[in-house]
Design brief:
Number of strands of chain B: 10
Structural class of chain A: alpha/beta
Largest sheet of chain B: 6 strands, mixed
Mean pLDDT of chain A: 90
Largest interface: A-B, 18 and 24 residues
Largest sheet of chain A: 7 strands, mixed
Low-confidence stretches of chain A: 2-10, 308-313
Helix content of chain A: 25-40%
Shape of chain A: globular
Radius of gyration of chain A: 21 Å
Low-confidence stretches of chain B: none
Oligomer: heterodimer
Mean pLDDT of chain B: 91
Shape of chain B: globular
Chain lengths: ~325, ~260
């Protein structure tokens, strides 16, 4: 990523520096990112700055993005897989204003993807960077409230406790019921929370060709997975890791291999399942794929534009 | 088990909570052989718990050496070990039963998970095997198997204490440290717990160091006794000998203070 250190601050909106953060802060964050890449899965503390939005809305991810973004970059921002939700729209607009970078909804066109809760369905490639917004970087926290003890556990690779949480799942529900923030071992060394992505996305993290950066704003931690790193989801020998399954395909594009969101249609119990990755779904529909409800939607559209009589000739 | 094996050797152990302050433990030396149960008795504030913490690698002594017979390595100074080695020792070869079960149990994790934690910490990754072992141990400490998925915060004090014992013994430790294991329990529950402990210690050939202010507990469980007062050991010897024929004035006071019913 090229970053212009001699950038003339006056050119940004209202005199803000390029990409909002000042250059010293960006250097500090970049040093932390380098350390994080050198120690895959290790949580590097950093001096988190106040961002102009509340903690929990992506301040960590934004600081990482602001530190690595350059003029030539193209940014895609998603929230729960969708490009058009409040959080995604606002963060995208933030960088449009403060860094004047190009933005896109297409995963393939983006050089940086900032994400909350999902890994895009389209595969990322070498040279791309995906930035995750992280609410709670410490996977051991629910079981071990003491920070010093958690750090010792990481330092000495004592991860039996994480297994206890999976044991509790099986004892209570008969299976590992953890469906998001599913803990992983990175490079056989550090236990890591993959942030609240669904465990559906966990297998994608293993041997991922793009650089993965994780920023937690409130907890002030950065961690990373370099390209092509081994990422293994924890499990038991007799209860192996498995991802979510759906009985239906996407109601709009018919995809049978994507992460689906449930959408309530009315108060009569009708519902549909649609791809959570809005760009992926839209592209498939444009390519002519259809699902259970897309026919009705297409008919309604055709009737509205008066095209339903045209083919008779 | 070979009764002659020297398991723990303590030499001139002292501990001061702050520099120049009174010694909570002063110049304590003793040896413990495998299969032996040592009782430490004395009044509140005599330094019993501090001594136990120093012995169990949880409080670095100000002075003195604590040596333990590591498997395959022989006697080694536990405070010269690296911290991960000490932590491994604490969850494999040793057990620590706390006075307050809240300190020794994970109150938000089910009974089965509490017992299984040590197994998972040393690498067990087969759910069925872990659960089987947990059930086995819950039975050994006479707990109802129907409670295996209940959380310890919903257990009675006696059950919590028994669960703590199961949780510690599951890795088959050679040495167990107990700090007032029957504190806060009513006498009938105490009696059952003592009975259980005595059985387990004999059956498994465990060595144990038990801190208690209750002479009846010491009489039932301990082979040898050390009497502490103001941080120092004032008298030590075989349990019956110390309790039936106390020499030191403080021990005489302690023995005569026990209420006769």
């Amino acid at each position: 990523m090229t970053t212009d250190a001699e950038f003339d601050g006056a050119a940004g909106e209202d005199g803000y520096n390029f990409a909002y953060l000042d250059e010293q802060t960006k250097r500090m964050i970049r040093r932390c990112i380098l350390k994080a890449v050198a120690l895959p899965g290790y949580q590097v503390p950093f001096g988190g700055r106040e961002m102009p939005l509340p903690y929990g809305w992506g301040t960590g991810g934004m600081q990482v993005t602001a530190s690595i973004i350059g003029r030539d970059d193209t940014l895609k921002v998603i929230d729960q897989g969708a490009d058009d939700t409040t959080n995604a729209v606002n963060i995208r607009r933030f960088f449009e204003r403060t860094a004047q970078v190009a933005t896109t909804e297409a995963t393939a066109e983006a050089s940086i993807v900032q994400t909350r809760h999902r890994v895009p369905e389209d595969p990322l490639v070498e040279g791309q960077i995906i930035v995750y917004q992280v609410p709670q970087p410490e996977p051991l926290r629910p079981l071990e409230p003491r920070e010093v003890e958690c750090r010792k556990m990481h330092g000495y690779r004592e991860y039996g406790l994480m297994q206890v949480s999976l044991y509790e799942d099986i004892a209570r529900f008969g299976e590992i019921a953890t469906s998001y923030s599913y803990p992983v071992m990175v490079n056989g060394r550090y236990l890591m929370s993959p942030t609240p992505i669904p465990k559906f996305d966990n297998p994608k993290l293993d041997g991922f060709p793009a650089l993965q950066l994780f920023g937690a704003g409130r907890e002030k931690r950065i961690y990373a997975i370099p390209p092509y790193t081994e990422v293994k989801s924890l499990d038991f020998d007799d209860h192996p890791f498995a991802v979510q399954q759906w009985e239906e395909d996407c109601a709009l594009c018919g995809a049978d291999d994507t992460f689906l969101d449930e959408v309530i249609l009315d108060d009569q119990g009708n519902r549909m399942f649609v791809c959570s990755d809005s760009h992926f779904c839209a592209r498939r529909r444009a390519e002519g794929h259809g699902g259970r409800l897309s026919e009705g939607a297409a008919k309604a559209y055709a009737a509205a534009v008066g095209a339903d009589r045209a083919p008779e000739a | 088990m070979d009764a002659e094996t020297l398991l723990l050797r303590v030499r001139n152990l002292s501990y001061a909570y702050a520099y120049g302050s009174l010694l909570a433990c002063s110049d304590i030396s003793f040896e413990l052989h495998s299969g032996e149960v040592l009782g430490i008795v004395g009044e509140s504030g005599s330094g019993k718990t501090t001594l136990l913490n120093c012995l169990s690698a949880r409080l670095t002594p100000t002075n003195g050496i604590v040596e333990y017979d590591l498997r395959g390595r022989g006697l080694a100074d536990i405070y010269a070990l690296s911290e991960p080695e000490r932590r491994l020792l604490l969850r494999t070869d040793w057990g620590v039963v706390m006075q307050n079960p809240r300190d020794g149990l994970r109150m938000n994790v089910s009974a089965g998970g509490n017992v299984g934690e040590r197994l998972m910490a040393v690498g067990a990754r087969h759910y069925g095997a872990i659960r089987g072992e947990a059930e086995d141990w819950l039975q050994k400490v006479e707990m109802d198997l129907g409670r295996i998925d209940d959380k310890p915060k919903h257990f009675s004090g006696g059950m919590q204490q028994r669960l703590q014992i199961a949780r510690n013994l599951v890795t088959k430790p050679r040495l167990v440290f107990m700090d007032e294991p029957t504190g806060g329990l009513d006498v009938s529950v105490q009696a059952r717990l003592l009975d259980l402990l005595r059985g387990l210690v004999r059956e498994l050939g465990l060595s144990a160091i038990i801190v208690t202010h209750d002479l009846a507990v010491a009489r039932l469980l301990a082979d040898r006794l050390m009497v502490m007062k103001d941080g120092a050991v004032v008298e030590s010897g075989l349990t019956d000998q110390v309790l039936d024929d106390p020499h030191h004035p403080y021990t005489q006071l302690l023995v005569s203070s026990v209420l006769q019913v």
